[in-house]
User: Fold this.
Amino acid sequence: MSKIVSEKMTPAILGGKPIRKKPFSVTWPVIGLEERRNLLKVFGSGKWWYGEKVAEFEKKYAAFQNAGYGVSCTNGTAALEIALLACGIGAGDEVIVPPYTFMATASAVLKVNAVPVFADIDLNTGNLDQKAAEKAITSKTRAIMPVHMAGLPVDMDAFKALARKHKLRLIEDACHSWGSQWKGKGTGAIGDCGVFSFQMSKNITAGEGGILLTDNEEIADAARSYTNCGRGKGKAWYEHYLLGSNLRMTELQSAILLGQLTRLKAQTLRRERNAAIITRGLKGIPGVALMQRDRRVTRRSYHMYMFRFVTEAWPGVSRETFLKALNAEGIPASAGYPIPLYMNPLFQRKGNGPRHCPLSCPYYGKTMDYTRVSCPNTEQVCREACWIRHSVLLNESGDMRDIVEAITKLWEQRESLRHV
Ligand SMILES: Cc1ncc(COP(=O)(O)O)c(C=O)c1O
Assistant:
């Protein structure tokens, strides 16, 4: 074998030539003239507080997701808490959540004095499994809160039917799914309501921010009140009807988000096209398991491109070695959530977690012991997931072929990776 051929085939981590020498050129956030113009306008107006721009953003974002109402707030975590409160979830109620997600999905439930009940995910999608969710239903269950993980919509037909059958609220944690559609309707208002995050890493961002979407006017009004100090719709300023808080979005955040929104559709479609190139390229490789997309998903946001490192197909090679080797080829990828949420010290009672309501509260009348929870699919995905972040998918199609080439190279040279 010539030296050049051998250098090309040798993994970069073992001294070979990397597939990519230059970084991906699109980095996050992408900003443009729209944000600058909007920001300067708001800045100069002297009205920085909960006004025109907030209302404009709420209306435009709700329309973008085909929802009737949008209520903005400070962040996705607050939006989850508001969604639960606005749906009437409270002390002693159980809410079914997946354990493969960001902490806020479960901590929001505790924050409203309700009890998160973890049900396992589907290995093929990374999403809450509806059969596992149904099994977790008890007489205390009041809501199901699936996450559209990485932007891939859960089976909303199945979850709606389940919620209807058991008279439960269905709240979508849509904090990864800006622009995703299920049968042509945007995620977020297919269930009773849904929430989005606009934190820095998200596909549309103002550094921080959140919104609740719904088609239900009562939920929208309650959410507005909870975010605005408990005020009543059309009521006097110093009258307070609900135990709300000040969780209002600012005009400055909305000015940025309105700019970001002008690009969101095109960026979503670009990520989708680029992800399809990666999917086509990786399809035949037994060492990687791709997430499966339901035909009823008519558009999907990619908060990340996620696949599983199939451990048994790479004898002697760990996921961590694979990721290091992929990084050495010039492809940024990471491992994602390291543990299921229930393994966090908060739930395992190893730290200074809550020893009060709701977990040992008379309203609950039961005891919840998270040390006994076991969700094998989630534990496997935590061990095997590989994430490529969304900004990478905004690059050129040729850049996607580099990703495919790098993973293919590592697969073909997997024997040599045993010596890393
Ligand atoms: C699935 C999910 N839910 C909720 C949140 C909370 O959003 P925020 O960071 O805006 O509070 C996040 C943020 O990472 C998330 O990924």
The pocket of pyridoxal-5'-phosphate is lined by residues 75-77, 101-102, 104-105, 147, 173, 175-176, 197, 199, 210 (CB under 6 Å).
